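Q: I have 167 residues here and want to know how they pack in 3D. Can you give me a structure?
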Amino acid sequence: MKRLILVVATLALLLAGCAEDNSVGDKGLLEGTDGSGGTRLGEETTTVPVETTAPPATQPGGPATTAKPAPTTTAKPAAQGYPIKIQPDQAGTQFEPRVAQVFTGTPVTWTNTDSVARSVEFSDQSYVSGPIAPGASVTYTATRAGEFNYSDGTRPYAVGTLRVQAR
């Protein structure tokens, strides 16, 4: 009998809890109508710094100046550069990575980590870097989609591939 009372009491508590509004979260947060002045989920934000007043000029009678910093906007990041190392023969692979995949508009930077000058030459001759000194780098920005095979002009056996995909 005690078990039956315990079961009935537990069910009564559960049913009473279900009758209340048990929603989780606030739909207003997602819609931007919660009154907080915040932004909706996934929305870009703009931060405007507080206006400041600089101290008076050091010259007597100099006017005080008001600094108005430019607003800072949170936006999508610019295309990131894609690094490729030009390595010595002892490294095993002369271009690291040997195959690179990027989107159009992405800057690709080859850095010469060898102790002698190297170069990058596309097989269709659409890009030729010229000599790249040890420790120096060159950057190429892919403007069209396609697959571009390239080599080191000083070592024709040192090859790589740049695959460019349209955005």
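Q: Anything worth noting?
A: The radius of gyration is 31 Å. Helices lie at 2-19, 27-31.
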